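Q: How would the structure tokens look for this protein?
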Amino acid sequence: MDKRVYLLTIVSFVVGMVELIIGGILDLISSDLNIGLGKAGFLITVFSLVFAVAAPVLLTMTAGVERKRLTLLSLLIFFIGNGLAVFSPSYSMLLIARIISAASGSLLVVLCVTIASSIVAEKYRARAIGVVFMGISASLVLGVPIGLMLGNEFGWRAPFILILALTLLSVIGVYFFMDKIDPKPAIPIRVQLRTLKNRKVLFAQLTSFLFLAGHLTLYGYLTPYLKMEIGLDGTWVSIVYLIFGVAAVAGGGIGGFLADRFGTKPTILFVTVVFGIAIFSIPFTTFALPLFLAVMMIWSMLSWAITPAMQSYLIESAPETSEIQQSLNNSALHFGIAFGSFIGGAVIEKGSVALNPQVGGLIIIAALGAAVISMAQHDHSFMSFTKNREMNEKI
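A: Here is the predicted structure in token form.
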């Protein structure tokens, strides 16, 4: 496989880190900028929301631009966005910085996936895309502990300085090692959204959305939960996040194994049920740190175990539009992160962080319902959609 795929994986890792890196340093930002925890959490919400919406829109708008040039331009704008975060004197400026970073970052991730698939032989295409997505998933779970350690040691702006350095390295790598790549015709957004007429696919995408929303309702505010409910200090919080990150990365592999061994449907249902039980159990484990860590490891492993099973399920459910479904699933995940972090912030502002696990668990029950509805649908709805589309194209 082409070694340049690993360069693209580094780019996707850097972009992914920025999304949740604020999660571990919410209290530091809240204190420094004199804002509430819920308002600080909105910095995650707005990033994920812009990320989910901007990717398909910007890809359509830049359909005719040469890919290497577009990647370098996007990296430059991404650098500017994170530079603004470093020097933000106020919450408003930091919010603008997050919007700029999210818009440029969303385009970068799509470019990494499309470039990776175009520079390798066809037999390595799926593997190349998988490697790029590994960079994203690893960054989402490791970004928080890295941000937390740097933030506690040097202040909340330090993680963004690291992002600036890694972005510069990415620019150098792309400039010297990537060849010019002609753009491919973009699939119009309306065509992508039309595939959701298939109820099987629609409820599968809704499952991903609700699953991540339930997860982020607690995970987005894990630092204040650990400090207020368990009484951990900064060092222990860093250790907990590191354990969580390692377990979550391992969970992706476990999810893939379970899906291959037992099938996608049983895996999705099993992971969702056990994940929901784990979140509901969290408040009952806070009296003993070892017990909390044991349940948290189950929670963290399953947080990303559903992703490979869900992506395989979408390919099985809609093979004709599998590429579109992967793109839409990426948007669904980020909408889930945005919604979950928003709900989690609202719970803290209106009630207490102690309630976040229960609210997150209720959203997971809704995710289980969506998965069951999706699996109860027959495939004929997709077949009729495909036939209708073919007839429309002939006309």
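Confidence is low (pLDDT under 50) at residues 380-395.

The chain has two domains: 1-186, 188-383.

Upvote if useful.
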